[in-house]
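Input chain follows. Return structure tokens only.
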Amino acid sequence: MEKIYFYNNNPTLKLRLTQKTLFDNIILFMILNILQIIFAVLLILAILLQQKGSGLGAAFGSGGSLYKAKKRGSEKVLFIGTIVLAIAFFSLLAADIFI
């Protein structure tokens, strides 16, 4: 009795599989880059919304107050949202490096 081996030595099929895998990788990297841009813009906006005081001096730290108030309401939500956005952004960067 003769053994039947299911080897696929068809070079056309191998090329198609390679092209499909390459196309999937390109799509994955495009999605990662788009997500990184979106999260970077959202993170910048969240950080800029947290600034207190006005003027250019407040942006460099000279507009601070003498006491620390507890974060409440929308300020707390914005603070926690900024942390979540930062974690998501750096996770996307790590994914882009290690994939």
